[in-house]
From TrEMBL, chains A, B:
This is PLP-dependent aminotransferase family protein. Residues 30-382 form the Aminotransferase class I/classII large domain. Pfam families: Aminotran_1_2 (PF00155). InterPro entries: Aminotransferase_I/II_large (IPR004839), Class-I_PLP-dep_aminotransf (IPR050859), PyrdxlP-dep_Trfase (IPR015424), PyrdxlP-dep_Trfase_major (IPR015421), PyrdxlP-dep_Trfase_small (IPR015422).
Amino acid sequence: MRYAFADRVRHLQSSAVRDILKIVGKGDVISFAGGLPDDEMFPMKGIEEAFSRTFQSGKKSLQYAETEGYRPLREAIIERMARKGIKSYSADEMLLTTGSQQAIDLFSRIMLSPDDIVLTEDPTYLAALQVFKSYEAKVIAVDSDDDGMLPDDLEQKLKQYKPKCVYVVPTFSNPAGRVWSLERRKTLIDLVHKHNVVVFEDDPYGELQFLENETYTPLAALDDGTHVLYTSTFSKTAVPALRTGWIVGPYQVIRMMSQAKQANDLHSNSLAQQALYQLCRHFDLDGHIDHLIEVYKGRMEIMVKCLEEANVPGLKFVKPKGGMFLWLEVDESLDMAKLLPDAVSRGVAFVPGEPFYAGKPKKNTMRLNFTHATPEKIEKGITLLGELLKEVMAKQAVK
Amino acid sequence: MRYAFADRVRHLQSSAVRDILKIVGKGDVISFAGGLPDDEMFPMKGIEEAFSRTFQSGKKSLQYAETEGYRPLREAIIERMARKGIKSYSADEMLLTTGSQQAIDLFSRIMLSPDDIVLTEDPTYLAALQVFKSYEAKVIAVDSDDDGMLPDDLEQKLKQYKPKCVYVVPTFSNPAGRVWSLERRKTLIDLVHKHNVVVFEDDPYGELQFLENETYTPLAALDDGTHVLYTSTFSKTAVPALRTGWIVGPYQVIRMMSQAKQANDLHSNSLAQQALYQLCRHFDLDGHIDHLIEVYKGRMEIMVKCLEEANVPGLKFVKPKGGMFLWLEVDESLDMAKLLPDAVSRGVAFVPGEPFYAGKPKKNTMRLNFTHATPEKIEKGITLLGELLKEVMAKQAVK
């Protein structure tokens, strides 16, 4: 039988890259591809205790629950966010979601009609691009440098395209590892107020900050609660399997998202929400995050050192100030998607940069994750990658 | 600021009924409104042990996981379904979802373009209607009697409307508590094959069967795996808070849904999936379901007895053969939505029948849940409801 799918699934194509990486997950290849935290770092004991406390609270903990999510956890998150300067929201202006991915999806579902425009950085989070496209919206890239979107280009595109929203990952962006300057953040807020557009601030990595003395103020802390939707998650700071993220924003938008969530799944796993509440209250989550930072920063530095020692001509990157990713640019002659099968057969995997681009892709780019592999594997994997790149370039030089 | 929502959210309106019932949840009102199982019946010890076993399996249990869901649980569900005669599917043709609600939503997302047609029973599951409308599809009701859809009307509407799918709850339907006859099930399968349309079989209640000697064959057991999507859930048999449902169907459709799920939330809570797998393997789930049946059947019988004793003129219902709901029809002069505030102020709540209708609503209907309230509360609540109905009718007679 021929199944008559909806028009919108034309945009839901599985990529060749994804298919290769699915195979990688099962083999002995050293993978810098996934966006995975290190399993060994998971606070298993804290999580077990948190569940145990939740079960002790009684059988009601296993019943259907509110679409908006477990209120005490929402309140605990409001407290945590206040310490980062985000103070414009109450628990009524928050929705707990199945990871921050669902926050991106629900927001898009209530906001984007076909042919609506979303402005993004370039490159930007691949799976956000997929969501926008799945609602048949159009994505327009704003020119950026290492400090964030360029104000002139942003304003010109706000005027020209009248977008529905601006999607940004201003702190330790995925994939580029960028951090926006405070000035650019303020300019963005000014411009969206001027042009009456909302910003969707995706901040899954903000807590993984490597430089103690710097401050990266979230956009949500610079706004008055009217123009910014802010999402984050416990996936990188606690554990991914509980799939618990959140979003705060203007009440009207959150309420509409809540109605969409009711249609989508009634509510997310509420046992996990209750356990995470117990974790916030009875476990030293901040101490745990400090430990994560120490370990991940160490791995990032090993990766940087190995990349420098690999001595690959034309290789460029900016040392990450936090997060989970390092973005590499190699000689313009190289197409990293085409080199992926070769790399995998030699025992190392990465994500080619191409699918992260909303505009014209730079094919000579790739994203490397430094949080999942051990230091030994990072050394070995970067050596393999460096050898491959140098060999391919040497061959090209001969031609 | 005025937020420019997408066109599709015109269909996402919170209802007055929902708002009233939200208040009910917080007070002392006896509620027959929610579709809740009884907390006291939750197998807390089994669930705790299942989580404990999962934690013992190691830290990998807390990592990101496959979009399709934990494979051993999918395999365990395949085994359970085979005992009900559903044998056309492998674990590759299954997706684990956040409750069966997400299965309805993802199916609709990949299948329904604006103005596409879905055929349904009438009345039918309210939240499915909301999903179809949220994708701007049109819902057409097929004429039905107590045995299911009427074949002539079904075939006529398959021809006339060329629908994208037929949505049915053939066993202990929500809200009407109907059970389709085997003959009507077979006819439906024949007709959808003839007209090349898929059936979406929603079966959350099938395991809560009160009459031992009857057999209700799922549509999925009558099909060859090409025309039926079948969804069910652990929410009614184990616990709702884990939000774990599943869907099986043709590989092409499941694969497309899996891609949509990746955009929607990457994957559902995988710790819950692993715990439910342990529950299936190490806990007597069938024995537990037998116990649920005994208790819920007892409550249904008390509700039926109280309704008969209430002696309300014009009151009609069919005694449920399973599931969680009893569907009441009262005198034609009564509008149950209008009577709801009165009922709540007297201390009893129900869901008015109107929003369950895809076609012209019968306003003199309501849905009563018999699984959540204790026998004492059922007696008291039905007495209150009966008094209200008789008083209102007596007043009308005076006018």
